[in-house]
Design brief:
Blueprint: H1 9-19, H2 24-41, H3 45-49, H4 52-56, E1 61-70, E2 76-87, E3 93-99, H5 105-121, E4 128-133, H6 142-156, E5 165-168, H7 175-189, H8 209-226, E6 236-240, H9 244-255, E7 259-265, E8 268-271, H10 278-290, H11 298-301, E9 306-309, E10 320-323, H12 332-340, E11 345-347, H13 356-365, E12 368-370, H14 372-375, H15 377-391, H16 398-420, H17 429-448
Parallel strand pairs: 3-4, 3-5, 6-7, 6-10, 10-11, 11-12
Antiparallel strand pairs: 1-2, 2-4, 7-8, 8-9
Bound molecules: glutamic acid.
Catalytic activity: L-glutamate + NADP(+) + H2O = 2-oxoglutarate + NH4(+) + NADPH + H(+)
GO molecular function: glutamate dehydrogenase (NADP+) activity; nucleotide binding
GO cellular component, one term: cytosol
């Protein structure tokens, strides 16, 4: 037996840091998973001998490319694009595309790594991938966005395919951008296939894909509460973000009888003590998505609210929390404040919004804490259903899809219980999600031998 087969956790993490210099987000995501997996595999010789964790933490490939485009003033602009194909042991690579100035190789590697476990948890046959660019859509005209999307796809098309790698949306990439990219893919390849998800309903998209991530995060929250004999009726919710995930999470909280107190964007957060009703959510959707406005404008429209510039909403006392903006938006001090203010449950609508210190605070306080890879899997799950509908050349009804989404979220909750139930009424959902997601991918990798 080679010595390297049984490295301890600190030595393993040292290796990850050494091999991924300048990639803190990726190292953080690996550490959060490895903390649980080391315990789980302690007595499982085959996972050690086959170096499974080491192999999952090394992407199958990282494709990096130049994206040139011309802005409305005739200037030539140069961006960097990537597709990280992390693991395809249980299905084609699957995961979104992010356009945001904060995108780096580290961010996309962390997202592709997380996606691998998330997709496994859905129970659907999807591997993990992620892509994107440091392109900033803010302030760009629709024509500029179209030209960028076309240029991005002109390189990406050779690396993807309905049975190879199926991208979707993420931050900065919604239905409009998917349309531009799908149009360019179709133009280059002359193929109409399910190569992207999040498509428009007229051209192969699925009902409820838009709502699925936010709704799913609330279904997961409701499942956690139900396991303790509770529900959302009368519960106050603090939500960050104001995009697709946040607004649909807010909508489902309201439908299930809860009261939404906050929403936010990069400029700050609004606090509406009267509650953000469906009518107000509809206004936010139109303002943010169609008018590309700022959340602070909410206060001019609805006088009951206040705006706090440059801050996250975690100081507002509440029963439940849904971080739905971006990675590392909630730190250890925020987590302590939330626990001290009586928060009983957190369901992550974004990917890795809680940093490592925050995760440890929630775990130590033994509150209900659902990590993104479990709680926000509803989006990619309905993407998986979109792939099935495309392959079968059919469309399911809204009622069928709503039921499938609910069932999938309940199934993920069940899978988390298998390894997360710590006895004494405490469920460690981080551990449950990490181990259940890992085991499915790891067992597939074992079947394939050393490849
Ligand atoms: N970007 C979403 C996520 O983080 C959705 C990915 C997909 O639908 O493929 O899960």
């Amino acid at each position: 037996m080679a010595v390297a087969d049984h490295v301890d956790f600190p030595t393993f993490m040292e290796g990850v840091k050494r091999r991924n210099p300048g990639q803190p987000e990726f190292v953080q995501a690996v550490q959060e998973v490895a903390e649980d997996i080391f315990d789980f595999i302690a007595d499982k010789e085959e996972y050690h001998a086959q170096q499974i964790l080491r192999r999952i933490a090394e992407p199958d490939r990282v494709v990096s490319f130049r994206v040139c485009w011309e802005d409305d003033n005739g200037n030539i602009r140069v961006q960097r694009g990537w597709r990280v194909q992390n693991n395809n042991a249980i299905g084609p690579y699957k995961g979104g595309i992010r356009f945001h100035p904060s995108v780096t190789e580290s961010v996309l590697k962390f997202l592709a790594f997380e996606q691998t476990f998330k997709n496994a948890l859905t129970g659907l046959p999807m591997g993990g991938g992620k892509g994107g660019s440091n392109f900033n859509p803010k302030g760009k005209s629709v024509r500029e966005i179209m030209r960028f999307c076309q240029s991005f796809m002109t390189e990406l098309y050779r690396h993807i395919g309905a049975d190879v790698d199926v991208p979707a949306g993420d931050i900065g990439v919604g239905g409009r951008e998917i349309g531009f990219m799908f149009g360019q893919y179709k133009r280059i390849t002359n193929e109409f296939t399910g190569v992207l998800t999040g498509k428009g309903l007229e051209w192969g998209g699925s009902l409820i894909r838009t709502e699925a991530t936010g709704y799913g995060a609330v279904y997961f929250l409701a499942n956690m509460l139900a396991a303790k004999g509770q529900d959302l009726v009368g519960k106050s919710a603090v939500i960050s973000g104001s995009g697709n995930v946040a607004t649909h999470a807010a909508e489902k909280i309201v439908q299930l009888g809860g009261k939404v107190l906050t929403l936010s964007d990069s400029g700050g957060f609004i606090h509406d003590p009267d509650g953000i009703t469906q009518e107000k959510i509809d206004w936010v959707k139109a303002h943010k998505t169609h008018r590309r406005g700022r959340i602070e404008d909410y206060c001019a429209e609805f006088k009951s609210a206040t705006f706090t510039a440059g801050k996250t909403p975690w100081a507002v006392p509440c029963d439940v929390v849904l971080p739905c903006a971006t990675q590392n938006e909630l730190n250890g001090d925020d987590a302590k404040m939330l626990v001290a203010n009586g928060c009983i449950a957190v369901s992550e609508g974004a990917n890795m919004p809680t940093d490592l210190a925050g995760v440890h605070v929630f775990k130590d306080a033994k509150i209900m804490f659902a990590p993104g890879k479990a709680a926000n899997a509803g989006g990619v799950a309905v993407s998986g259903l979109e792939m099935s509908q495309n392959s079968g050349r059919r469309s399911w009804s809204e009622a069928e899809l709503q039921q499938m989404l609910k069932d999938i979220m309940a199934g993920i909750h069940e899978r988390c219980l298998t390894y997360g139930d710590q006895g004494g009424g405490y469920i460690d959902y981080v551990k449950g999600a990490n181990i259940a997601g890992f085991k499915k991918v790891a067992d597939a990798m074992l079947a394939f031998g050393v490849v």
